[in-house]
Write a structure and sequence with these properties.
- By secondary structure, this protein is α+β, with helices and mostly antiparallel strands.
- Among the domains are: 71 residues, Alpha-Beta Plaits, CATH 3.30.70.3460; 45 residues.
- The protein is 29% helix and 24% strand.
- The chain has a 10-stranded antiparallel sheet with strand order 4-1-3-2-10-7-9-8-5-6.
- Helix 4 packs across helix 5.
- The longest helix is centred in the first third of the chain and has 15 residues.
- The radius of gyration is 20 Å and the shape is globular.
Length: 276
């Protein structure tokens, strides 16, 4: 909605090249997450860029450092879910079906309609994408810094929520510190005519935080992606088996993350002039 483009990428990286490439990617601010996963495509990272041209520049530079073209962009075609609701009940697996309200985005086609953003809007976004002030009047503090009225700032934030620029303002739960130490990217090979049916059913599981339909290369024949969180790898496997039974899909696999190389939040409208 802000005019940026985002994608999940997969790369096949020889073990000897991982340290060099990981260090190179640390300095690319548009790369927000980078993990090693248990697959022959072993490096998985997300890119959020200000234009298709900038995205191509980033991926070309990675291919050059890697010395290989085995770096693939897997853009989302449809979003079935973006929502994290972890269960703290004994056992970790919860039968609760999450709501489809303002906490998540369900069934949205991508790309969304581009919205005109003013310079005043950009100034507010630059502030709220960081931690909001730890005070009794955080929005008054933000308004003061922007030399705006607090009511005006709150009205603009409500507009951002209404049109989908802003998903929510919340405290961040670090799920690994909360005991959810295992996460797996479950990928599914689903017939095209069943993608919507299966996508909505997989998204209904509370332990699934993300569910997307993605474009993938022929060498990776999976078109639905789910992120699953649990207290152990065994719980993840049990949940995936339960999901597979519900949707009657047997062609799936699980990619566990075993090394976190980078994890950061995207910061918008901070690119140097000329980058985009």
């Amino acid at each position: 909605n802000l005019g940026y483009v985002s994608t999940l990428c997969a790369a096949r990286v020889p073990a000897a090249k991982i340290p060099q490439l990981a260090e190179f990617m640390l300095d690319i601010t548009e790369i927000t997450h980078n993990y090693l996963r248990n697959h022959f495509y072993n490096m998985w990272f997300t890119v959020i860029a200000c234009s298709e041209r900038r995205l191509k520049q980033i991926l070309d530079s990675i291919r050059k450092v890697l010395g290989s073209n085995e770096v693939y962009s897997l853009p989302a075609e449809k979003i079935f879910k973006i929502e994290v609701r972890l269960s703290f009940k004994d056992g970790g697996l919860s039968p609760k079906v999450p709501s489809t309200g303002s906490f998540g985005q369900i069934g949205r086609k991508t790309p969304a309609t581009k919205i005109t953003i003013t310079e005043q809007d950009k100034a507010l976004i630059r502030l709220i994408q960081d931690n909001i002030p730890a005070s009794l009047t955080p929005f008054a503090d933000i308004a003061r810094e922007l030399q705006r009225d607090e009511h005006d700032v709150l009205t603009t934030l409500q507009k951002f929520l209404d049109i989908g620029i802003l998903r929510r303002l919340v405290a961040i739960l670090y799920h690994q510190k909360a005991g959810f130490t295992s996460n797996a990217m479950g990928v599914w090979s689903v017939p095209e005519q069943r993608v919507d049916e299966v996508g909505y059913k997989l998204a209904s599981f509370a332990e699934v935080s993300h569910c997307y339909q993605r474009s993938t290369p022929p060498s990776f024949p999976y078109n639905l992606f789910t992120m699953v969180h649990a207290r152990s790898d065994e719980e993840c496997r049990a949940l995936m088996a339960k999901m597979a039974e519900k949707v009657n899909i047997t062609n799936y696999t699980m990619l566990f993350s075993h090394t976190e190389l980078k994890k950061s939040s995207m910061r918008y409208f901070l690119e140097p002039c000329g980058v985009c």
